C-alpha cells in the first residue's frame, strides 16, 4: 500500500476524543476570571500589535488578581532566598545578605541532594512545614499549631481541590452538598461541577457590606437537605470578589452553625494580609475556634488555606501555598497523603517562596529594614487604591460600591437599562461594551453569582495609582454614556431585590 493510500485511509478514521465523548463534567466547568471577556481582550491586544486601530491606547486588564502583571515589584528578600535556593553558587556573592543565605541553606539541607530540583515529600519540605506552624502560632497569638497538620500545596487552589475530592461522595439525595458564598470565587463552582457535587448557594448581604448572615446559612442548609446532603461549608475571608472582612462575632456564629450541623469547614484565608479599613481586622477561623473552647476546638473539622499569590508579595507564578488540617479522622488523613502523593509534590521553589512569607526577616537581621519598607509600601498603596476605587465608583450615577475593606477587588452593583441587551446576559453585554470602547477588561458579576435582578462586575485594584485613576475615570465616562444611550425610560427599582442601591436609579445630569 502506498504512502498516499495509507494517509487517505488514516484520514477516514474519526477522532477518539470529541465534544460528544468528552467528560461532561469538564464541559460543565466555567471559570469567568479567564472567560470570554478575557479572550476578547487578548484578541484586541493581538490586533493592536498588527496595526489595527482601536479607540484606546492599551488594554487594561483588571480582571485577575495578578499583582506582578499589573506592575507590582517583587519583594527583594523573597527573590533573594529563592534565587539562592535555585543557584547555590550565589552563596559566595557579597550581593546577597547573610539572613537570605541562612534561610536558603536551611531549605536546601532538607532537599534531596541539597537541590530544589529534587522531589520533596508529598506533604512538603519538613523545615518549611515547621516554619508554617510557627507562623500560625505567632499569627494566632499562641494558639498552638502542629507541623504534622500542615501540608504545602501548589497554590491554595490545589489544596482546596484536594480537600473537596475527599469530601464528595454519595448518589442522589445523599450526594455531598457544598455550601459556597454568592458572590463566590469561581474556583469553587468549577470544582463542584468537575466533581459532580451539589452546589449550595448562600447569599452574602450586599446591603450590609457583604456580611455573612447565619439565618441565610440556615435557609440555604434547610433547602439543600431536600435534594442533597450538605457536608461542607466554604468561607472566603477576606472576601473575593466582594472585599469584605468578616467580624470575629460573625466567625463565631458561623463556627457555631457548622458545629450544630456537623459541617466540614473550609476557610479560604489567602487575603489575610490584605486588610485596609481601620475598623477591620483579620481573625483566623482557627483562632476564633480555639477561643470558643475545647468543645468546639477539638471537634469542628477545619481546613484553612494560604498562598504566595496574594498578600503583599503577589508571587502568583511560584504556585506556593499551604493548608492546615484540624480534627480530621486519622484514617482519612492517611488517604489525604495518598491523594497528595499521586501528584508527587508541590513546586519546591514555590515552597521556598512560601517559607519566606511565614519566616520573614526579624528585627535584628540585616534585611529587616528593606523588607519592612517594601511590604508597607505595597500594603499602603493597596489601601489607598481601595479607598480611591470606592470613592470614584460611588460618584457615578447608577453604580454603588461597598467599601473595599480587604482583598484586591471591588464588586460594584451597576444599573443596566432593560433595553441594553437582547442577545447576551446584561452584565456580559456591559463588560463587552466597556472592553470594546475603552480597553478596560473586567469580569461580569454573573461569573461569580449575584442575586436575581442585580448586576455587577469585578475589577481588581492592582493597577498603579496613576493607571487606576485613568481606568476609573474612563469607566465613569463610559457608564454615563451607556446610560444615556440605552435608557429609554426612568430606571425602576427591582422588586425582586431589596438590596438595590438607592442611587442606582439616578440618571446623569
CATH architecture classification name of the largest domain: 3-Layer(aba) Sandwich
Number of helices: 17
List segments where confidence is low: pLDDT < 50 over at least 5 consecutive residues: 489-509
CATH top level label of the largest domain: Alpha Beta
Category by helix and strand content: alpha/beta
Function: Catalyzes the reversible transamination between alanine and 2-oxoglutarate to form pyruvate and glutamate.
Keywords: Aminotransferase, Pyridoxal phosphate, Transferase
EC number: 2.6.1.2
GO biological process, one term: L-alanine catabolic process
Structure overview:
- InterPro entries: ALAT1/2-like (IPR045088), Aminotransferase_I/II_large (IPR004839), PyrdxlP-dep_Trfase (IPR015424), PyrdxlP-dep_Trfase_major (IPR015421), PyrdxlP-dep_Trfase_small (IPR015422).
- With 509 residues, this protein is an alpha/beta fold.
- The chain has 2 domains: 24-69 and 372-487, Alpha-Beta Complex (Aspartate Aminotransferase, domain 1); 98-358, Aspartate Aminotransferase, domain 2 (3-Layer(aba) Sandwich).
- The protein has 17 helices and 14 strands.
- The strands form 4 sheets. It has a 7-stranded mixed β-sheet with strand order 2-8-7-6-5-3-4, with helices on both faces. It has a 3-stranded antiparallel β-sheet with strand order 10-14-13. Strands 1-12 form a two-stranded parallel ribbon.
- Helix 8 links the parallel strand 3 and strand 4.
- The longest helix is centred in the C-terminal third of the chain and has 26 residues, at 368-393.
- Mean pLDDT is 86; it is low at 489-509.
